[in-house]
Amino acid sequence: MGAGKRNTSKRHKAEDYMRRLFFVSVLCAAMLASVSLVQAQEAGDTWVEPVTGMEFVWVPGGCFRMGCGGFPNDCGSVQSQIEEVCVEGYWLAKYEVTQGQWQAVMGDNPSGFRDAETYPVEQVSWDDAQAFIAELEAKGGDAGLRLPTETEWEFACRAGGQDITYAGSNDPGEVAWFNENSRARTHAVGEKAPNSLGLYDMSGNVWEWVQETVNQGGGSTYSRDNLNEEPSLSQVLRGGGWNYTSWFSRCATTYFLKPDFSDSSLGLRLARSE
Questions:
Q1: Side-chain half-sphere of 195: how many Cα atoms within 13 Å?
Q2: Structural domain spans, the chain
Q3: CA-CA distances (angstroms) from residue 80 to 5, 68, 72, 73, 152?
Q4: Which CATH number fits domain 42-272: 3.30.360.10, 3.40.30.10, 3.40.50.620, 3.90.1580.10?
Q5: What is the C-alpha to C-alpha distance for residues 147 and 152, in angstroms, rounded to an integer?
Q6: What share of the chain is helix, strand, coil (3-state, %, to 5)?
Q7: For the residues 183-211, what does the mean pLDDT come to?
């Protein structure tokens, strides 16, 4: 009897030791995962979307003065609205969504310029962009994929809120395709220089839809104070396009169109919530 009790006690101690060892192993794994996640959230780090191979760049959060303000060019009433705003960190696609990526998800290509899979998809409405995101998620894409907000877009265009006119330069010719250099067409993504975050074509090539809805109020002046109100709703775009002047390619320029409107200068870029 005594030997049996001793054996039972040893067995219980061994089981308790194994449980503690398992707990410590799980705790260490969680800590390593946490450290890895923090390390991934540094400027310049990348994440690849597995379905399309779309590359994303980490944009650290921060605060900046959003709008045109004292930049050395003529600003319209919309861009002259200066706001001190802050954003949390997020992922933003390094390039505009390409025709190859759109084809892989949607099974078609609405674009007018079909030179290669690396050209930006165009002829895309805001409604089309939302359908693309939903279909990408259905095919196994990350549930956090979405259009960037207008604030996120401008913050990234300015590489963290820098006082710079275009995405990466004060010279549009270095970073943007617009009406004076585009030869009346889109171009493959990534041909122009990136900004300091490693983001390409945020100025020019194709306009990029962002998430916000704006109330034009039957022709009233756009204001960030009347977002998401009825009755006359349009969606906001940023970045300018191949057939517009460089003025529209500035980081501060805001444009808006109806959500079902599409043409050969309208595309998209995705963001991802952490």
A1: 35
A2: 42-272
A3: 83, 5, 12, 11, 18
A4: 3.90.1580.10
A5: 10
A6: 30, 20, 50
A7: 98
Q: Are 192 and 177 contacting, i.e. CB atoms less than 8 angstroms apart?
A: yes
Amino acid letter, 259: P
Q: How confident is the model at residue 52 (pLDDT cuts 50, 70, 90)?
A: very high
Distance CA 10, CA 27 (A): 26
In whole angstroms, how far apart are CA 231 and each of 203, 216, 262? 31, 8, 21
Q: 């300015």: which residue's tokens?
A: 158
Mean pLDDT lowest among 14-23, 43-52, 154-163, 169-178: 14-23
d(CA 204, CA 259): 20
pLDDT at 72 over 60: no
Amino acid identity, position 134: A
What is the sign of the dihedral through the CA atoms of 207, 211, 215 and 218?
positive
In whole angstroms, give the CA distance from residue 132 to residue 17.
Answer: 51
Q: Which residues contact 143 (CB under 8 A, 6 or more apart)?
A: 137
Whether the per-residue pLDDT at 223 is higher than 60: the answer is: no
Strands annotated E in the chain:
46-48, 55-59, 62-66, 83-87, 90-93, 145-146, 207-215, 233-238, 254-257, 266-267, 271-272
pLDDT for 9 equals 57
Does residue 106 contact residue 135 with C-beta atoms inside 8 Å? Answer: yes
- Reported confidence tier of residue 68, pLDDT bands at 50, 70, 90: confident
Long-range contacts of 129-132 (CB under 8 A, 24+ apart): 129/209, 129/268, 131/106, 132/97, 132/102, 132/105, 132/106, 132/268
